[in-house]
Amino acid sequence: MSDATPNPVDPTPAHERENPEPHEQENFPSLLLLFLCSILVFVSALYLQRYSGNFDPLVYNEEVQGAGSAAAGSAAVVDPIAAGKRLFVNNCVTCHQANGQGLAGVYPPLAGSDWVNDGEEALVRILIHGMSGPVVVNGVTYNGAMPAFGPLGSNWKDDKIAHVLTYIRQEWGNKGAPVTKETVARIRAETAARTKAWTAPELAEFHPKK
Question: What is the pLDDT of residues 98-121, one digit of tens each?
């Protein structure tokens, strides 16, 4: 005879013995998390208000002063001297030096230069198409090459050429008048067919001696 005792029958109905159906619980974020999110939104709004520049695409243009100011929509004011100096430092300082003295026997000076001070007509032509061959500057002969900065298709537009020329004509004690973009545009149109650098003899008529 077996000594095993049969399991008693569980009187609980079968459907009540099943595990409860899983269900989604709503876990509300803590107050600390809500507070931190609010702070983040507030700080972001302050940052955009201060540094967005009213989302003006010109606000960080290196040649524009005052874009994105309180007077939104007003015309941007360009300081030709400041813009010209930046262009000079980035493109011309290696040859002509920060003090405008050039390199003796190699690159002519701009400071006190008769070519810089005596008139703008020759100067604009030189910057647009370059210059090659011997040239006398302040009584000293130089024989090198000045690269062209403004031929057709160049990204040196009329205002850039006007700015850098205005800067060198008013820096280092120079007393030349400002060069306007209208003057550059006129000369560029007059010389549009030119494809080579100028020489000193060709520029003689545009470079009056005092």
Answer: 999 999 889 999 999 999 998 899
